[in-house]
From TrEMBL:
Pfam families: Phage_holin_4_2. Keywords: Membrane, Transmembrane, Transmembrane helix. The chain crosses the membrane at residues 38-56, 63-83, 89-106. The keyword Cell membrane does not apply. It comes from Syntrophotalea acetylenica. This is Phage holin family protein.
Amino acid sequence: MRGLLIRWIMLTVAILLAAWLLPGITVGGPVSAFFAAAALGILNALFRPILLLLTLPLNILTLGLFTFVINALMLMMASGIIGGLQVAGFWWAVLGSLIISSVSWLSTSLINERGRVEVISLRQRHGRWE
């Protein structure tokens, strides 16, 4: 549960970072970003797997780059739900989804379910990595 809350806060920070870096994305404040992160998380949990499955041939054809389009659509859907989050257009949503996806991937790969940072360190022993 603690890991979920930390990832939610990291997603909120990612949305605020995208709004700070990109003039096409505006957020009303930290509270709006917090609720936008919740809406984005729910949309990603419910609709993203279905969209990924439906667009699998196109995703394979583009070597996975179409996933950014799906993420942009999820961001635009979240902006339609949350009044404090506004995305000026599709390409701003694509750029915003790049930033948000990067931070989300980093936090998901580093933070476990208990909310602790987990780092895998590899050592080479007898010619093998362990």
